[in-house]
Design goal:
Elements lengths: L3 E6 L3 E9 L9 H14 L1 E4 L6 H8 L25 E4 L13 H6 L16 E10 L7 E5 H6 L3 H7 L3 E4 L1 H7 L7 H6 L3 E4 L1 E3 L6 E3 L5 E4 L4 H15 L5 E4 L6 E5 L3 E5 L9 E8 L10
Parallel strand pairs: 2-3
Antiparallel strand pairs: 1-2, 3-13, 4-15, 5-13, 5-15, 6-12, 6-14, 7-8, 7-11, 9-10
The protein binds N-oxalylglycine and manganese (II) ion.
N-oxalylglycine binds next to β5, β14 and β15.
């Protein structure tokens, strides 16, 4: 069989969310296959691959077709607790012994920040390109991941709002996103690590050239704007960008791999029974430049 990529929902979302078939991505790819997947990503922003029983090594090898991997160091885990390797972000509710974390566990509470719309690593100077999330253990219900098309969100703004957004620079930090869920229990060292970085509000995709809104719950300020005005403005934009018509909600099956382009989408997790294990492994392909370095 050969690789084929189709829209997940050709009727209501023909240009956002693709499903791949006819390919085993746990095995090495040809350059042509990798290029076809990248083309699919440029078109659909999010791609689903079913039935890919990855090991971490295989997931890393697949991910490296698209660039260098980010180090998974932004969580609060101390190294003793770390369950997975340095390039695998632990998107689970499990401790080092694979037990479900207690309700009050600090890492669990911090990770509830993923329930807010965001783009991965927007708080890094050079933010992420792709995230690749592999479902190893899923809860019996709930726990969907939702994706919003930030290109469509940009395109559908009125001209006045587009003009207002153009050239604006936001500050992104995990301190802002966690403050929104009332998590403020940071050490001085963490506050230093989470110092805000600047990103353009309107970004241009490095390969397609398409513009999109670069929003995330990590964005907490706009340079030159009073903070309450900036937050109210950003909140309105997030509300616009996450209308259901721009959103694909992924209902996970074991061994799904979902790849999203952080340069053109936002995503968030949905709730599930916190006493059940949910074990997802994420690799993250680093971007090549800060959005500040791109032409306006
Ligand atoms: C992530 C993320 C959402 C989820 O892996 O970056 O936000 O549903 N995950 O686990
Ligand atoms: Mn995320």
């Amino acid at each position: 069989m050969t690789l084929s990529i189709r829209p997940i929902d050709p009727v209501s979302r023909p240009f956002f969310g693709g499903i791949a078939s006819g390919i085993d991505i746990t095995k090495p790819l040809t350059r042509e296959q990798a290029a076809e997947i990248e083309k699919g990503m440029d078109q659909y922003g999010v791609m689903v691959f079913n039935d890919q029983p990855f090991t971490d090594e295989e997931q890393m090898a697949f991910s490296r077709n698209f660039g260098e991997l980010e180090l998974a160091t932004n969580n609060l885990r101390d190294s003793k607790e770390q369950r997975l390797g340095a390039h695998i972000a632990d998107i689970s509710n499990l401790d080092a012994n694979n037990n479900v974390l207690a309700r009050e566990n600090r890492r669990r509470l911090f990770s509830l920040g993923t329930r807010l719309w965001h783009s991965d690593s927007s708080f890094k100077v050079v933010p992420a390109k792709y995230s690749l999330l592999s479902a190893r253990v899923i809860p019996s219900k709930g726990g969907n991941t939702e994706f919003a098309d930030m290109r469509a969100a940009y395109d559908s703004l009125d001209d006045e709002t587009k003009a207002e957004c153009e050239g604006l620079i936001c500050e992104h930090s995990q301190l802002y996103s966690r403050a929104q869920i009332g998590f403020g229990d940071f050490t001085d060292e963490e506050r230093k690590i989470f110092a805000p970085v600047q990103q353009r509000l309107v970004r241009r995709h490095p390969s397609t050239g398409r513009k999109s809104l670069y929003l995330a719950s990590h964005a907490g300020a706009i340079l030159g704007w009073p903070v309450p005005e900036a937050r109210a403005f950003l909140r309105d934009l997030v509300e616009h960008a996450t209308q259901r018509k721009y959103v694909y909600s992924h209902q996970w099956k074991k061994f799904d791999l979902v790849v999203w382009d952080n340069q053109a989408t936002m995503h968030r997790s949905r709730p599930f029974d916190a006493t059940e294990p949910r074990d997802m492994h994420r690799t993250t392909v680093a971007g090549l430049a800060s959005t500040m370095a791109q032409a306006a």
